[in-house]
Specification:
The protein is an alpha/beta fold and about 450 residues long. It has two domains: about 140 residues, Enolase-like, domain 1; about 290 residues, Alpha-Beta Barrel (TIM Barrel), CATH 3.20.20.120. About 40% of the residues lie in helices and about 15% in strands. It contains 14 helices and 18 strands. The strands form five sheets. It has an eight-stranded mixed barrel, surrounded by six helices. A hairpin with a 4-residue loop joins strand 9 and strand 10. Helix 13 packs across helix 14. The protein is globular. The chain starts with a strand and ends with a strand.
């Protein structure tokens, strides 16, 4: 498989100051203009995410702009072993005390344009390898708000802060259609997400529309299959139903085929197993409660291979537990030429874990979540490593989301192949709608080329 971004030319739009890149703007305006990007005030509050969980939101201000960011929060059963903890050891309240006493006084007066310096200071103030003192969410929300206020002050889109060229590509939306695992209540499939991606779409808006149509069709098929189906959805607004994983894929296949035929374009399927939740470390087996069966790592490998072949899967995420680089590598070796083997919990957006995984050939794609590593700079360094080594980037939301749209901009900035942010729900669509706006404003931007 080969993914590449097509050749891009100079873009025009209201977001670009006087038709100049922001680097040119800084050079022309000089030190007086830089004073406008100094952080003058930081306010914070707690709000509630899409699961009703209290989370942190901050506003950073300069003399000419405001940047607001809110922290998403992974479900307790879906947070990876190796990602940064969300908050301080004492929870959100302790993080707020640290924010008030240490972080805000340290950040006020800094230049919002100096993203790496801000993120380095956050790392220094925490003083642990993985933001164990202040929490990944606490750091990530400040890091993101700094980027947003810098962009707002300059009146440019946030992605322009992280791209030195004038072009850009848009990611394909990877849509969660049928949910299970830690994201669902009641009887549901064991695997966490049964996914679809419209790789034949010509625009981001068309791709979003196609995913919505597939989601709607899945709901109609579930209603026919199960008289007891009442339209229930999980944390990410994927349908949840009394099915095992093969049955879920069969339903999704029917929906995908119908919409693909009607729209005249190709749609493919994928899975996110979140296999840490299936793994029994004492017995060293994967437990599938819906099937009332267990699988050894070798049987898990064979099972996933069968699903890839049977359903022509183009994407499989976290097929094994997050300590099993070798099984990831075997799956990637056997099927990576026709299916993206993606690492989330295995790499955890962590530079060293990603480097190890790449050296072992463990994955052809990886999930990037800034709050897994605490800062935009940390996530950027990991994404850059992956890009240099040919590993594709998938920017991802969390199960507990907010209306923050920053990952849409980061997906464009880092040439992500896909963005994984659900299909329905305001907190999910806000990211996709932002990509539609970028597509509308940046006339030369197109969906990243997908060839296989």
């Amino acid at each position: 498989m080969v993914w590449k971004c097509g050749t891009m030319h100079r873009c025009s739009g209201a977001w670009i100051l006087e038709g100049l890149k922001y680097y040119d703007v800084l050079k022309e305006k000089g030190e007086a203009f830089l004073a406008d990007t100094a952080i003058t005030n930081i306010q914070y509050r707690t709000i509630f995410d899409s699961r009703g969980v209290e989370t942190l939101e901050v506003d950073l201000s300069t003399s000419k702009g405001v940047g607001r960011a809110a922290a998403p929060f992974g479900a307790p059963g879906s947070r990876g072993e190796f990602e940064a903890p969300a908050y301080a050891p004492g929870g959100l309240r302790e993080s707020i005390k640290i924010l008030e006493k240490i972080l805000i006084p340290s950040l006020v007066g800094m230049d919002a344009l100096e993203q790496e310096k801000i993120d380095a200071l956050l790392t220094q103030l925490d003083g642990t390898p993985n933001f164990e003192k202040i929490g990944g969410n606490t750091a990530a929300v400040l890091s993101t708000a700094a980027a947003k206020v810098a962009a707002d002050t300059l009146k440019i889109p946030m992605f322009r802060l992280f791209r030195k060229d004038e072009g850009g590509c848009l990611p394909y939306p990877l849509g969660n259609m049928i949910g299970g695992g830690a994201h669902s209540l009641g009887p549901a499939p064991d695997m966490q997400e049964h996914l679809a991606v419209p790789i034949g779409a010509r625009t981001i808006k068309q791709a979003v529309e196609i995913n919505l149509k597939v989601h709607e069709q899945v709901g109609k098929l579930l209603e026919k299959k199960d008289p007891g189906f009442a339209g229930g959805t999980d944390d990410e607004n994927a349908w949840t139903a009394n099915l095992n994983d093969v049955q879920a894929l069969e339903i999704l296949q029917q929906a995908v085929d119908k919409i693909a035929d009607k729209e005249g374009l190709e749609i493919r399927m994928g899975l996110d197993l979140a296999a840490d939740r299936l793994w029994d470390p004492l017995r060293k087996i994967y437990r599938y409660d819906r099937e009332d069966t267990t699988r050894t790592p070798q049987q898990q490998l064979d099972f996933l291979g069968q699903l890839i072949e049977q359903f022509r899967l183009i994407y499989v995420e976290d097929g094994f537990n997050s300590n099993d680089y070798d099984s990831f590598a075997l799956l990637n070796q056997q099927f990576g030429d026709r299916c993206l083997i993606c690492a989330d919990d295995l790499f955890a957006s962590n530079y060293q874990r990603t480097k190890t995984g790449i050296e072992k050939g463990a994955a052809g794609a990886m999930i990037i979540k800034p709050n897994q590593v605490g800062t935009i700079t940390g996530a950027k360094h990991t994404a850059s490593l992956a890009g240099r080594r040919g590993v594709k980037i998938v920017l991802s939301h969390r199960s507990g989301e907010t209306v923050d749209d920053s990952i849409a901009h980061l997906a464009v900035a880092w040439n992500a192949l896909m963005i994984k942010t659900g299909v329905k729900g305001g907190e999910r669509l806000t990211k996709l709608n932002e990509l539609i706006r970028i597509e509308e404003t940046m006339k030369e931007f197109h969906l990243i080329k997908w060839c296989h």
